[in-house]
Amino acid sequence: MLLEPVVDPLAVGTARVPAVVLGALVLIAALLLGGVVFARRGRRVPAVVHGGAGLGLLALVVGPAVGAWLLVAGVALLAAVGLSTVSGR
């Protein structure tokens, strides 16, 4: 994010994508992969937290392109995951 003013958008196919978006997509992929790995190991709570955070962040990144309802859903999902993590349930 700090390099955004310095780094030009990267070409992905025919589209020019800002580096911040690509960084967010890598984080989303890592969270979703973490959810799958935790689920396969039988650790349900970390799997739900990682999967929920990944889906919520995905909704935040894709939301502006699709519509405001997806953006609101992403914020709500991230808030629910955050509150459940803090409360320990």
Largest sheet: 2 strands, antiparallel
User: Radius of gyration, Cα only, in angstroms?
Assistant: 15 Å
Number of strands: 2
Let me know the average pLDDT: 86
Could you state the order of secondary-structure elements as H and E? EEHHH
Query: Which residues sit in consecutive blocks of at least 5 with pLDDT less than 50?
Result: none
- What topology, given as strand order, has the largest sheet? 1-2
The shape is: globular
Overall helicity:
over 70%
Q: So how many helices?
A: 3
| Amount of beta strand | 5-15%
How many structurally independent domains? 1
Q: Which structural category do the helix and sheet elements fall into?
A: mainly alpha
User: Separation of termini?
Assistant: 32 Å
Q: What features would you highlight for this structure?
A:
89 residues; single chain; mainly alpha; two-stranded antiparallel ribbon; 73% helix; globular; 7% strand
Give an overview in words.
By secondary structure, the chain is mainly alpha-helical. The chain has one domain. Helices cover 73% and strands 7% of the residues. The protein has helices at 19-40, 44-66, 68-87, and strands spanning 10-12, 15-17. Strands 1-2 form a two-stranded antiparallel ribbon. The radius of gyration is 15 Å and the shape is globular.
